[in-house]
Amino acid sequence: ANVLSSPNNILGIEYLKALKRRKSKICPLTIKREYSDYNSDSFKKMNKVNYNLIFNSEIENIKNLNQKPKLLMHSCCAPCSTECLRRVVNFFQVDLFFYNPNITDINEYNKRLLELQTYIKNMYNNSINILTKEYNNQEFLDYVKGFEGEKEGGKRCKLCYELRLEKTCILAKE
Fold this sequence. Notes:
The chain is mainly α. About 50% of the residues lie in helices and about 10% in strands. It contains seven helices and three strands; from the N terminus they run αααβαβαβαα. Helix 4 (about 80-90) links the parallel strand 1 and strand 2.
């Protein structure tokens, strides 16, 4: 099976590449998927690996540190961040990095940022810092030049992941 045929695999690989390029001290935890794709029967039967148990084991390791490590998390929007934040906020000092140059309309970009800010204010009393980078759709368009005709989930998506994660890693290194 082609490892690059799954958007989640592409995203994971881009995280690893960005970490390596930045000579980051971040140690990623990778978990092998036990199914082939979202539409397969094996996905529906993914009882082979209990990802929640793996996550809980990692959290127990963190609890043993007797301190909250820092966590920089990329956020594309409030809805995508909700469950991730709920799972980690009690164990990490979380900063969110809202960076989405792929959004073509500045008004949409601002709406998403405002929703994220509202969510953090209402749910976490602004205890989570939201970091942003100046909106620059042209940066994304330049980065994906030549791949404008790619289908969803194709090379253009891979480049989008790469750009956002690379900027997240640069920020994490600072």
